[in-house]
């Protein structure tokens, strides 16, 4: 069988080992070297252009059905639990906690739950929601298993590495939010980021008020492609008497975007996290669709005020 293997960045270090195993079983194996951001980002074009019979995507659960043979190989990571004891004194004021994690640690949720219950906490796990497939699982773009239990809990506890996943959940919830990083042996409340990111969003909106020409980002990635939204945004911008054009790429390169000097602002329709995490990487403000709506509303109010005065 002719196979294309695709690994997210953190697992690319094991790509050759897997390739050799599959080759030893009689397969012809190719490795995708493109950046990979999730199961929303299957290397389908590469698989088709090399005539692969199957794409094997490591590290993520299925995101959506596609018309190609894709095998998903989830990757469980057994993180050390020793750091949990550091969380208990910090959680003293909170009785009921909502526990969330990434797909790599979902298999550890029962052990985590047991630990917190033994320490007098009530633990709530949100149901799978949208693109997330497991109880308590969050994705960068799907934090329903946190936001749907916001009213039921006194605080949230995220278990896992990095800020990418907890940040999404943090911005869509209102309760104190404790992040436990088992590999860095770090436990801290990250609530202050709510204010930081709201301030950044406000700053982008204010900068975009002067924009006249908008570039709308449309990705070709299978799970992020949203042409309908890109077209709606273009229509709205044009209806407001401004210019808009849809810009197409697989992975957006911020230097190339910056070279498009005619655009005063960009609007994201790809991975929703781009307008949050990468907003500082472009010369012009990089807005979400909601932020653009705020810009258009404020522009229209300013115009009305000018006409009245
Ligand atoms: S957060 Fe972005 S990269 Fe991650 S799964 Fe969602 S759309 Fe894909």
* Chain-averaged pLDDT: 96
- The CATH class of the largest domain, by name, is Alpha Beta
**Number of alpha- plus pi-helical segments:** 11
CATH topology of the largest domain: Rossmann fold
Distance between the termini: 73 Å
Task: Kindly state the number of beta strands.
Answer: 13
Rounded to the nearest angstrom, the radius of gyration is 22 Å
Q: Structural class of the secondary elements?
A: alpha/beta
Which bin fits the share of residues in helices?
Answer: 25-40%
Uncertain runs with pLDDT below 50, 5 residues or more? none
Which strands sit side by side, in order, in the main sheet? 6-5-7-8-9
Work out the strand percent: 15-25%
What small molecules are bound in this structure? iron/sulfur cluster
Task: Provide an overview of this structure.
With 309 residues, the protein is of the alpha/beta class. It folds into 3 domains: 2-73, Diphthamide synthesis DPH1/DPH2 domain 1 (Rossmann fold, 3-Layer(aba) Sandwich), CATH 3.40.50.11840; 84-190, Rossmann fold; 198-308, Diphthamide synthesis DPH1/DPH2 domain 3 (Rossmann fold, 3-Layer(aba) Sandwich), CATH 3.40.50. 34% of the residues lie in helices and 20% in strands. It contains 11 helices and 13 strands. It has a 5-stranded mixed beta sheet with strand order 6-5-7-8-9, sandwiched between helices. The protein has a 4-stranded parallel beta sheet with strand order 2-1-3-4. α7 (192-208) crosses α11. It is flat and about 65 Å long. The termini are far apart. Bound molecules: iron/sulfur cluster. Iron/sulfur cluster is lined by residues 37-38, 40, 139-141, 223-224, 271, 273.
């Amino acid at each position: 069988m002719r196979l294309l293997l695709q690994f997210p960045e953190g697992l690319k270090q094991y790509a050759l080992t897997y390739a050799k195993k599959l080759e030893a079983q009689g397969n012809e194996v190719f490795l995708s070297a493109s950046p990979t951001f999730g199961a929303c980002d299957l290397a389908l074009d590469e698989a088709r252009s090399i005539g692969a019979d199957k794409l094997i995507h490591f590290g993520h659960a299925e995101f959506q059905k596609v018309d190609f043979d894709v095998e998903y190989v989830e990757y469980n990571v057994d993180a050390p639990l020793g750091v949990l004891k550091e969380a208990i004194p910090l959680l003293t004021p909170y009785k009921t906690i909502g526990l969330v994690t990434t797909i790599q640690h979902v298999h550890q949720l029962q052990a985590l739950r047991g630990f917190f219950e033994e320490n007098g906490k009530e633990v709530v796990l949100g149901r799978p929601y949208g693109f997330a497939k497991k109880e308590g699982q969050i994705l960068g773009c799907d934090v329903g298993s946190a936001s749907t239990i916001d009213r039921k809990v006194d605080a949230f506890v995220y278990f896992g590495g990095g800020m990418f996943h907890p940040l999404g959940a943090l911005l869509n919830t209102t309760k104190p939010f404790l992040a436990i990083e088992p590999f860095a042996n770090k436990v801290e409340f990250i609530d202050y980021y709510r204010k930081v990111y709201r301030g950044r969003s406000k700053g982008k909106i204010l900068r975009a008020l002067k924009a006249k020409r908008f570039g709308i980002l449309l990705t070709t990635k299978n799970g992020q492609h949203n042409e309908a939204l890109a077209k709606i945004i273009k229509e709205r911008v044009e209806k407001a008497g401004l210019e808009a054009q849809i810009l197409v790429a697989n992975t957006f390169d911020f230097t190339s975007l910056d070279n498009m000097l005619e655009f005063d602002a960009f609007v994201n329709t790809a991975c929703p996290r781009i307008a949050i995490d990468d907003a500082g990487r472009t010369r012009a403000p990089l807005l979400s669709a909601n932020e653009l709506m705020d810009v258009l509303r404020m522009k229209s109010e300013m115009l009305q005020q000018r006409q009245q005065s």
